[in-house]
Amino acid sequence: MADEKRRRKVMFYGEYDRALDPQCRISLPSEWRSREGETELVMIPAPGRALVLMPEETLAGFFEKLQDESIANPKIQMAFAFLGSQARVCRCDKQGRLPLDRKKLESVGISSQVKMIGAITHIRLCAPENWQVPGDEETVAGYLGDIRSVGGEAGGLAGILSSILGGR
Questions:
Q1: DSSP state of 47
Q2: 122 and 142 inside one domain
Q3: Do 124 and 160 belong to one domain?
Q4: Are residues 25 and 80 in the same domain?
């Protein structure tokens, strides 16, 4: 059952420019919506004048790994408290509109236009002028190195991506 649920998990690919409507909603691309039932995402702050939207299951999986440590570690407790206090649950309506917290958007410089970046496991939201696609080989190679170090497999996804991009 867990494998079946994992296969149906929504992945976030591509970039979209959206305008906020008067109720502070954006239209979520249909391929980013849940295939079964309601689409519910959690919005949290992110580095680089951005916000992140992710499925609650993804966020819960991350925090489950740290749960045991959080009980004994005051720094992790404070990090959890900070994220918990800043997090907002956002639920899509039947038309695919996702309501967002205006104050959170303004805190990262988003006023009327939103850049939505598919980041595989989550969606990154920022003002269009705050999104720069890295084009130089050194930056891309650094990103792939980071993926490789976390993945732990030299021949895994990062290795494949590296070879596709010309061994960068």
A1: T
A2: no
A3: no
A4: yes
In 66-151 the beta strands, taken as DSSP E runs, fall at 88-91, 97-99, 113-118, 123-126
pLDDT digits (tens, 9 = 90+) for 145-156: 777 676 655 444
Indicate whether 93 and 18 sit together in one domain: yes
Q: Each residue of 9-60: pLDDT tens digit? A: 778 999 999 999 999 999 999 999 987 778 999 999 998 899 999 998 888 8
CATH number of the domain to which 114 belongs: 3.40.1550.20
**Element (H or E) spanning 25, and its range?**
strand 25-27
Q: Which has the closest alpha carbon to 146: 132, 135, 161?
A: 161
Count of the separate structural domains present in the chain: 2
Tell me 46's DSSP state.
E
Report d(CA 53, CA 100) in Å as an integer: 10
pLDDT tens-digit profile of 96-131? 999 999 999 999 999 999 999 999 889 999 999 999
Give the domain extent around 147.
134-168
Copy the structure tokens of residue 93: 């309506």
Q: d(Cα 92, Cα 159) in Å, to the nearest integer?
A: 37
Instruction: Say if CB 76 and CB 66 are below 8 A apart.
Output: yes
Same domain for 28 and 103, yes or no, is yes
